[in-house]
Amino acid sequence: MQDDVWSPPPVLLTVDLVILTMREGRLCVLLVERGEDPFQGMQALPGGFLNHAGEEILDAAHRELREETALGAGSVHLEQLGTYGAAGRDPRGRVVSVAHLAIAPGLPEPVAGTDAMDAGWVPAESVLSGEVALAFDHRRIVTDGIERARTKLEFSALATAFCGELFTIAELQQVYEAVWGTELDTRNFYRKVQAVKGFIVPAGSGRRTTGGRPARLYRAGPKTVLSPPLTRPTPSTTEKETKGEAN
Fold first, then answer.
1. β-strand 200-208 against 215-220: which pairing, if any?
2. pLDDT for 9-34, tens place per residue?
3. Cα–Cα distance between 146 and 138 in angstroms, integer?
4. Tens digits of per-residue pLDDT, 168-208?
5. Rounded to whole angstroms, how far apart are CA atoms 25 and 38?
6. CA of 211: how far to CAs of 80, 215, 218, in Å?
7. Which of 87, 201, 232, 241 has the least CB density, counted as fewest CB within 10 Å?
8. Helices 169-180 and 186-195: crossing angle, nearest 10°?
């Protein structure tokens, strides 16, 4: 009796992008309105299938990033976030997504791609709370991406990726507050940042006027790992209750 010949199941591969930026002091994520089924008309992360069997996954992520933001590899922080392959995540069949986290400062208004009806920046908290519903398992991917950013702000210099080439410590603090979702004591933050040698460095004698006295300008330093780390504050009981009600 001849054994049945095994053949691999058909599996499709996509890349999805969690693109984060700061807009008007708020952490925002780029979403597109799907122009076709499945989930036509719903909000989703930008992304898509590989162009061809020979396209590398990272190349596909950079391609999607260029199409959605016109940004090249040298002007944005891009890292692989995770692989999402639950059997029922896509009604079209077994589709596995390799998600990536992208961060850049002051990104402009996006232009929808060929397979999207619209594109825009949405406050991250609106996605995390479920106020904005997303297609597929994209809310989980966004949640994972933001948590990755929150954790890396503690131990790495990732926060500077949200800033322009030159920034003030107040603007850097605004990044931490927006990503962590909590207010920080200004004096304590200044002291902690200055204690991490090489995290940020003075940009000459330049200063920026932001309504009060001129503030010194800084740029990202050579250090990528923060020691000591900037530990994320533990949410207060009130904040936990508020988040629980939102979810």
1. antiparallel
2. 999 999 999 999 999 999 999 999 99
3. 12
4. 999 999 999 999 999 999 999 999 999 999 999 999 776 77
5. 34
6. 39, 10, 18
7. 87
8. 110
